[in-house]
Amino acid sequence: MNALLLTAVFGVIMMLSSFLLTSKTAIRGLAVSGMVIVLAANVLEMMGIVFFKIDTKDMIAFDRFSLLFNSIVFISTLVYFLLSARDMEKVGINYGEYFALIFFVLCGVTLSSSFHSLLILFLGIEIISIPLYILTGSDKRNLKSNEASLKYFLLGAFSTGLMLMGIALIYGATGTFSTNGITTSPTSALVIAGMLLLMFSMAFKVSAAPFHFWTPDVYDGAPTVFTSFMATIVKVAAFIAFMRLFNDEFGSLQSRWQLLIALITAITLFIGNITAVFQQSVKRMLAYSSISQAGFMMMAIFAMNADAREGLLLYSAAYCLATIGIFAVLMKLKDYSFDGFNAFAKQQPLLAATTTIFLLSLAGIPLTAGFLSKFWMIKAVAGTGKYLWLVIFAVLMAVVSVYYYFRVIQAMYFKEGDGQTIEASLPFKWTLVLLAGIIVLLGVFPNWIIYWLYF
Amino acid sequence: MPINYYIFLSIALFVIGIVGVLTRRNAIIIFMCIELMLNAVNLMLVAFSKMHHLAKGATDATAGIDGQLFVFFIMVVAAAEVSVGLAIIVMMYRNIHSVDVNFLNRLKH
């Protein structure tokens, strides 16, 4: 509850700051300190100190899982602010408003990670989506940004319509919106239809195939600094909502949806990885990589056991931190193609080394957080004892993903080129080094996250 | 009147909305079809709300009231979505003087 109210309050404060504060440094400082306060308040709530006691009529349930996830999201956003906030100045003149919208998105993330009622799920997803439509189109003169924004908006609103129909059908069958699980037996056709509609709309929000077609275009067209936010924090938030929905509400129907989710997982892994191989632009490759990582996260939805819950949290942290790091480096470049990275290591050895660690983590090489999170996912699926082909397929696809991540490393270290001149400030470099350190440490001591889930 | 009529009507409206979204090329019309989908959901929620009230109203006077509350939330969110969506369409119109979504194919390589 702390974080939910504070993010909303800071959204309003940032909105006012845009005309009360004239200097961009002051706005940035306010946003970063706001983020630190939100994070601290959330950590305090994990320790049992709640500032605001509000009776939500059992519509919101802040349990350890959601609080821990919120902390991961807030840490990622803090890192994102430290690394990329300066790049938002290039997008447009409404500097304070961008931060305000991001805080509103975080408010939605808090709701969608802790809902205990379908009403809150709907509100959370919408509070995430509506500011994102604006952020996607924030580069107003750029046709690509306009196009991405309109496409995202139309498809997002369409999938919201599907979600609402699903909720209405489930309400018709059960007579309640709270997600206590479907208990009516035999299961009526209304429940099955509603569950399928909800599954499709959530698959759309997490960009799982075959509902992924908007992702590359939108991620490519949006200003890079906001793509970084959309591809990481928003995506894992949608996954947590997906997981909570299918754990709490449809847990008793697992035998009915498991095959469908397994198929969606396999298709997502296949399309994401195979298409990423053929991309020429690193930004677009990262968009497809986010689809393929979504495939791995779908494995948690499929398995839905204790390992899956731990794994999804670990995956959120590993994926968010690594991708934010890569995007922060990418934003410094002018040429987003693979050739843009040529001879990058000679010019910026430190940045190249940290980028390599992020890429290794995304590819799932041991000693990084990415390896352990993939391991957890595969362990969760193997633990269900069914659909062993999914495990084998996922491992094969992880091998394919190595190809396109290593292409960037190859360009950085082994290719000759003129090398672009980039300016990177010292604090930026040290933040990246710190981030790389966190990723390696999480790859050795994953219990630092998982410990919080139980104690 | 039996609940079936309401369900069939709202599903018909919903399907008209889906077909409109998938086939029309004008951004404003697509937008109206999405609104039609949301209104079909509203109608269905109100019908179900009444149904649950008739079934359980004798013991619990507030039974089924949450369905009607949900409708208000849908209206508010839809209004917020309209304000953002129309702004996006206007922004696109200013740049290309058209609201045709065939334009959206340019991002594909």
Tell me what you see in this structure:
The complex is a heterodimer of chains A (455) and B (109). Chain A contains 18 helices and no strands. By secondary structure, chain A is mostly helical. Chain A has a domain at 254-455. Chain A is globular. The relative contact order of chain A is 0.09. Chain B is mostly helical and 109 residues long. The relative contact order of chain B is 0.12. The chains are: A mainly alpha (455), B mainly alpha (109). At the A-B interface, helix 5, helix 6 and helix 8 of A face helix 1, helix 2 and helix 3 of B.
List keywords for this structure.
heterodimer, A: 455 residues, mainly alpha, globular, B: 109 residues, Helix Hairpins, 0% strand
- Strand tally of chain B is 0
- Poorly predicted ranges of chain B: none
Just name the CATH architecture of chain B: Orthogonal Bundle
Oligomer: heterodimer
- The count of β-strands of chain A is 0
Mean pLDDT of chain A: 92
Global geometry of chain B: elongated
